[in-house]
Amino acid sequence: MTLSRVPGGARAGAAPDAFERAVRALRAVRLRADVALTEVPAPARIAPHAVALAGDVVSEGEELATGRFILLHDPAAPAEWGGTFRVVTYVRADLEPEVGADPMLGQVGWSWLEDALREHGALAAGVGGTVTRVLSEGYGALADRPPSVDVEVRASWTPLAAGTDAGTGGAGGAGAPFEVGAHLEAWSLLLCTVAGLPPLPEGVSALPRPQR
Predict the structure, then answer these.
(1) CA-CA distance, 153 to 140, in Å (whole number)?
(2) What's the pTM?
């Protein structure tokens, strides 16, 4: 993983200690070398505090998938969150037309997210989202262009502390510990799965790229 930073990636201001610790934990995560991360300006109106990461899967110079991972923090713990933190994500990739035509693509795409969260032990509540496919076909002067299918998975969830049941506000307490790195790793796995990359062999760790 390469993590580059830009000014304003995490919004400036007096941030709570819990949020600052979460941001430091995100910046310390090391992902597989195919994933390039850039810290980008966070959305300004969703929550008082936020950090956003843009991710791309690049293999042999070709971009295979792209996405965003956003961590929101609101000390007021909005009722719809069920906690003080909320993760908002999306991933997008081009698929082979025959794969995109699969009527089960939506269910399969959502299962990729659920499997990624489970594999990395990223405990979450209120997981919801959409899987969208877009078919593009060329006509007229573009009739020779082969059909293409884009798939996009959008999801959000509330991260929970270990040993906390969903619905109890496990991430809602001040400074409640949760493994924010596991949530970024799960999102990265989803990004790589959508990109069509094979999983790393069991027991093999990805070597980090030098930070730039």
Answers:
(1) 31
(2) 0.81
pLDDT digits (tens, 9 = 90+) for 89-123: 999 998 776 666 677 788 988 999 999 999 999 99
Q: Which residues contact 115 (CB under 8 A, 6 or more apart)?
A: none
Rounded CA-CA distance 1/18 in Å is: 25
- Residues contacting 99, CB < 8 A, separation 6+: 105, 149
Task: For residue 192, give both structure tokens.
Answer: 């790589």
**What whole-number distance in Å separates Cα of residue 91 and Cα of residue 187?**
9
Tokens of 30: 């090391």
Cα 37 vs. chain centroid, distance in angstroms? Answer: 11
Q: Cβ neighbours of residue 45 under 8 Å, at least 6 residues apart?
A: none
How far apart are the C-alpha atoms of 195 and 187, rounded to whole Å?
A: 12
